[in-house]
Design a protein that fits this description.
This protein is an alpha/beta fold. The protein contains 17 helices and 7 strands.
C-alpha cells in the first residue's frame, strides 16, 4: 500500500463504489440495483451492513447533500440547510436535475427535526429525493416511515445469512491480502463469525493489525479483539464495584454510545461470560431479561444515560448475587 493508503481509514479506502461490489443480499441489490433515487427510501438494519454505503453509491448520480442527523439534529438544519439546498436549481444539459438528500443516522434526530422533515419531503417531492439510514427504525416516527420506502439491510433468511457470510469472508480475505497480512481460511471464517454482520467493525480491526505491523493473524488475535466493550464487561463482573467510580467512567466514556452499549450487553456480553467466566453462565437468562427491559425503556426516559447506568448497576447486582 502507498503512504497515502496508510493514513486513510480502511472504512473509506475499501468502501464499495458501485452496487456491484456492495455486500448485501440479492434482494437489496435488486431493489436498488439501478442506483437511481426513483423514490424516497429508508435503509435500516444493524451497524456495518452497508446502509450508508448504498446511499452514497446512489448519491454519485445526483447533486447530493449529506446530513449526519446524529450531529445535525435540530429543526434549524431543516429550515436553513435542507430547504435552501432543495430550493436552488441544479441544471444538467439545460434540464433541471433531481437532487438527493441523505439523512444518515436519522434515528438520532430530534422530534423537532422529524416534525419539520415531514412537510419538507412533501414540499420538494418534484425536485428532490430523500434517503434516510438508521439502525433502529422504531425510533423513526410512523409519519416519517410512511413517506419513505423501507429496505431492511439485515438478512431475513438462512440463505441470506449464508450469502452475506461468504461475501464478507471473501472481501476480508482480499483486504488482508492487500495489507500483506497472512491468514488461513479457517481463521477468516472465525473472524467473520465473531463480528458478523458488522463489516465496518471488521475493517477497523484489520486496520489496527496493519498499523501495529501484524504480519500474520491467528485465532488468538481474533479472541483478543472479539468484543467492543471489554472494559464495561470487566466493570460489570467486578466483585467489589465502586458505584460512583463506575458512574463517572460510564458517563465520561459512553454517554454518547448508549444504544451501542445496550446492544452489546445483549449480544456480546453472554459470549464474553461463556469464554471468560463460565461460572457465571447460569446468570445469562436474567442478564438478557434485564437488558431487554432497559432497551425497551430507552425511549421513555428524559435522559437516556440513566437507562444505561441503571442497566449496568442491575447487571452488577445479578452477577454478584
Amino acid at each position: 500500500m502507498s503512504n497515502k493508503s496508510i493514513n486513510q481509514l480502511f472504512t473509506k479506502r475499501f468502501r464499495p463504489k458501485s452496487m456491484e461490489h456492495l455486500i448485501a443480499p440479492k434482494r437489496i441489490r435488486d431493489a436498488i440495483g439501478s442506483s437511481k433515487a426513483n423514490q424516497n427510501f429508508i435503509f435500516y438494519g444493524s451497524a456495518g451492513t452497508g446502509k450508508t454505503t448504498a446511499a452514497k453509491i446512489i448519491g454519485q448520480n445526483y447533486p447530493t447533500l449529506f446530513i449526519n442527523a446524529s450531529d445535525e439534529t435540530g429543526v434549524d438544519i431543516i429550515r436553513e440547510k435542507i430547504t435552501n439546498w432543495c430550493s436552488t436549481i441544479s441544471l444538467l444539459d439545460n434540464k433541471e436535475q433531481m437532487k438527493l438528500v441523505i439523512l444518515d443516522e436519522v434515528d438520532f434526530a430530534s422530534s423537532g427535526f422529524f416534525a419539520a422533515l415531514r412537510g419538507t419531503i412533501e414540499k420538494f417531492e418534484d425536485t428532490a429525493r430523500f434517503i434516510a439510514t438508521c439502525n433502529y427504525i422504531n425510533k423513526v416516527p410512523d409519519y416519517i416511515q410512511s413517506r419513505l420506502e423501507p429496505i431492511n439491510f439485515n438478512y431475513v433468511s438462512n440463505d441470506e445469512e449464508k450469502e452475506i457470510f461468504l461475501l464478507q469472508a471473501k472481501r476480508v480475505k482480499a483486504i488482508l491480502n492487500a495489507a500483506k497480512i497472512q491468514i488461513d481460511n479457517q481463521t477468516i471464517k472465525e473472524f467473520v463469525k465473531r463480528n458478523f454482520p458488522d463489516m465496518r467493525k471488521m475493517l477497523n480491526k484489520i486496520q489496527m493489525w496493519y498499523q501495529n505491523g501484524v504480519k500474520e493473524v491467528t485465532i488468538e488475535n481474533i479472541k483478543q479483539l472479539n468484543y467492543s466493550f471489554v472494559d464495561i464487561f470487566k466493570l460489570l463482573l467486578d466483585q467489589n464495584p465502586d458505584p460512583y467510580k463506575n458512574y463517572k467512567f460510564l458517563m465520561v466514556n459512553y454517554s454518547s454510545k448508549i444504544d451501542d452499549v445496550l446492544g452489546s450487553l445483549g449480544s456480546e456480553f453472554p459470549n464474553y461470560i461463556k469464554e471468560n467466566h463460565p461460572d457465571k453462565i447460569s446468570k445469562i437468562p436474567m442478564i438478557l431479561i434485564e437488558v431487554a427491559n432497559h432497551q425497551a425503556q430507552r425511549n421513555q426516559v428524559i435522559d437516556p444515560s440513566v437507562t444505561m447506568l441503571a442497566c449496568a448497576y442491575k447487571l452488577q447486582m445479578i452477577l454478584n448475587e
